[in-house]
Design a protein that fits this description.
By secondary structure, this protein is α/β, with parallel strands linked by helices. It is built from 18 helices and 15 strands. The longest helix is centred in the middle third of the chain and has 40 residues. InterPro entries: CdaR-like_regulators, CdaR_GGDEF, PucR_C-HTH_dom, PucR_C-HTH_sf.
Length: about 475
Amino acid sequence: MNVADLLDRADLTVLGGPAAPGRQVTGIRMAMGAAGAGDLVVLLDPDRTSWRLDAELSKAVEAGAAALMVPGTEPLLRSTVLLAERLATPVLGCPADPLDTAVRLAVLIASPDVDVARRVLAAHQALDTATPTLEEMRDLASAVVRAEVTVLARDGALLLGPPIDERVKVSLPVRQRLAGGGVAVPVLALEGRSAELWLVVAGTAGGEEVLAVAAAAAQRSLALRRLELERDARRSSALLGELLQAGDDPGPSLRRRAAEAGWRLDGWHTGIRIDVSRPVDVVTLTGDIIATLSAESVDAVVVAEDGGWVAWVTTDIEPGADAVNRLALLVRQAQRRMADLDPLVGMARPHHGPGGIARSLSEARDAARLAAARAETGRFVHVDRLGLAQLLLAWTRTDTFVPAARSLLAALAADPGDLTRTLTVYLDTESSLIETAAVLGVHRNTVARRIAKIERLLGVDLTDADTRLALHLACRVAVPDQ
């Protein structure tokens, strides 16, 4: 066992000499005269304020000692620090009773497996008696192993704890010794065939065994949490199904259960549907969706469904146009926070009463389906705007309007750059530079320059309402798939 292991096991501090001592320690000696090669020499009452400690250090080195230990952690004299560095021999400070520490270290060196077993037992006692959260489990494991534990996602992304060397790669669902020291232990998924998480710690004796205990505790905690989430999701889904069937006249029992769930049936309800275009665990992610909406001040009921979520916001009075538009803006901002899910979002009009939840959610689902083909709106469709847009679009698809529209926008098509799409998005987002920039993925200054160029090429003023309407209709014809 080397000096670095002893530092970890006994809470010792390097007061002087190598900061990462690697010398092997073969025994503990309480008297300088009996010290030999590889010993840790323990001084119970040294004179740290004079040259005498320097002399003791020199004697220890001459005898081949691996390190010197003194009581306390107060700084050494400068001369002692320089001497320890020159002799490459660490001087260790002991915050606890040096005699008790020496006895414990002697047992540790003689029987290291006993100490590993003790730490594993401590890990079981700390982690098996409760169902800690992932953060609590990491903190408990770090305390037992006496080293910071890092928690990684299955793909290696950092979740908790200090960063690890970027060269460290974890893949197979088996324990892995890491290059440069350390160990990675997988927290297996419920089926036990893949790693749900990884626990990683720098090399320390006993760390692997303690992490295995922590991994088992984390797996149990995640499994229980998953069962709890699935139970809540089934309960919410069943309650919503009953509400949708009950319409405007839910019975007393249904009203009571809705109240217990925190759902308001009276008032005005504005539905939202969030679809995802790839397979995801909607049950596990429901909490993240709620948090994302809350971060944008959207206080909504959220229920997981196949392929996404439905949500609705309830108000006491009918929201006016400004309030609805404000909510749509907040939902769009929340959608951008969910960019990693590539969500398709539909938002309905407000509807009143218990049956209004069903009517609004039905509209929201239709809007979300249409959002899949509306890249120019950022895959977001609001029914209030959709109805008028669809009506106008049907009117514009005539033999006389189509050639006129294409001629109107011809100057944009001839210019390099996607000016027609920029104009379409700009008008769809109610002439908002910020929203247009977000949809197109460019800077707002870039949008401003493009809009100025469009006005110049077309010879129009986009602050004029009639001009905006004509161009909006023309864009719809010029880009028929949007």
